[in-house]
Design brief:
Elements (H helix, E strand, L loop, with lengths): L5 H10 L3 E4 L6 H16 L4 E5 L8 H4 L7 E3 L14 E5 L11 H4 L3 E6 L10 E4 L6 H12 L5 H14 L10 H12 L4 H9 L4 H12 L2 E2 L5 E6 L1 H7 L11 H4 L6 E9 L2 E8 L5 H7 L3 E2 L3 E7 L2 H13 L3
Parallel strand pairs: 1-2, 1-4, 2-3, 4-5, 5-6, 8-9
Antiparallel strand pairs: 7-8, 9-10, 10-12, 11-12
Helix pairs in contact: 1-5, 2-5, 2-6, 5-6, 6-7, 6-8
């Protein structure tokens, strides 16, 4: 499929209306920031737009949702009808490598005209219009660059959403993907009045006391391989049940094994459902973890990737570690 330009996509957006906006399941900060930024962008153009959510994350991201009304977004519910969304002709899909990552919305989305904007190198270009730039540090960065083609001014809510997206995917400008453009963007938004300190405080804070209890359990389970190059942590479904934590709060655990000095690859194994393990990979300098994730049905970026694998927790851990050790 053709990779279109940002100006082509901007021209389509200006000439059309009625947009649904969606990101991938289990959204990270870049996905949330990007879908919110696009909603604020379309509001500035007086376009009709509604955000599609896989679950209700409004309380987790109150700093952005405070700018919205309840009718501005739709939360998926099992067995609910999506017919109420039939009036929307177009869908903007953000930070999503393939249609499978749209979860329960997949079949519904494929009936619409799709605009696909992403930075995953393995994006399948599934849209009618596609802009995929694997060199971009975050989808929030792509949206920022598109503003000039749409003549949209940066208001506080739009700037906050873009900054959150970029800071989340660059680890507050600490990850290797933090290129000079990322620093310039954050500086520009700071000058525009966006509270970068507040956003970083939000990204670095813990959502609840239960999260800290869960983190203590996970950190207790950290192990390192015999070469001190691979570190991983494990959180079983039983441990999660014992803590009684909200499943949606469990994220970013992979950063802890990755940040051990001398480690090249950090991995987290989280059994959110019995027999279904969420696996996240992070690497520092040379291992392309997206290739490892692909072998287990997932994908991502060279330094950050993930997948979900069904099976026995211990067996899945062994299989993944055996594969990683071949490459480290």
């Amino acid at each position: 499929m053709k990779n279109n330009s940002l100006s082509e996509i901007a021209n389509y957006i200006k000439d059309n209306d009625d947009y649904l906006i969606i990101g991938h399941i289990d959204p990270d900060g870049d996905a949330v920031g990007s879908i919110m930024a696009y909603k604020f962008l379309l509001n500035s153009l007086n376009k009709s737009a509604k955000i599609l959510l896989h679950s209700d994350i409004s309380s987790n991201y109150e700093m952005l949702f405070k700018y919205l009304k309840n009718h501005d977004y739709y939360v998926y519910k099992a067995n609910s009808s999506l017919n109420k969304l039939d009036g929307f002709s177009n869908v903007i899909v953000l930070d999503t490598a393939n249609l499978e990552r749209l979860g329960h919305y997949k079949k519904y989305i494929t009936k619409k005209y799709i605009i696909n904007i992403d930075h995953h190198q393995d994006n399948s270009c599934f849209g009618n219009l596609n802009y995929v730039n694997a060199e971009s540090s975050a989808v929030g960065m792509i949206i920022y660059k598109q503003l000039k083609f749409l003549n949209v001014d940066i208001k506080k809510e739009l700037g906050t959403a873009i900054a959150l997206a970029v800071l989340a995917d660059t680890g507050s400008l600490q990850y290797p993907n933090s290129d000079p453009d990322s620093f310039r963007l954050i500086a520009d938004l700071k000058e525009a009045g966006v509270d970068i300190v507040e956003i970083n405080r939000f990204l670095k804070s813990y959502p609840s006391v239960d999260y800290l209890k869960m983190l203590a359990e996970a950190l207790h389970n950290i192990k390192v391989d015999e070469k001190d190059r691979i570190a991983w942590l494990v959180l079983s479904n039983q441990e999660i049940k014992n803590i009684k934590i909200n499943i949606e709060e469990i994220n970013n655990l992979v950063n802890y094994p990755r940040d051990i000095r001398g480690i090249e690859v950090g991995i987290s194994f989280v059994e959110k459902e019995q027999g279904l393990i969420d696996i996240s990979f992070r690497s520092h300098s040379y291992l392309d973890v997206s290739e490892i994730a692909h072998k287990f049905g997932g994908g991502g970026h060279p330094r950050a990737a993930g997948t979900k694998v069904k099976g026995s927790l211990n067996q899945v851990i062994k299989n993944v570690l055996d594969e990683v050790k071949k490459n480290v």
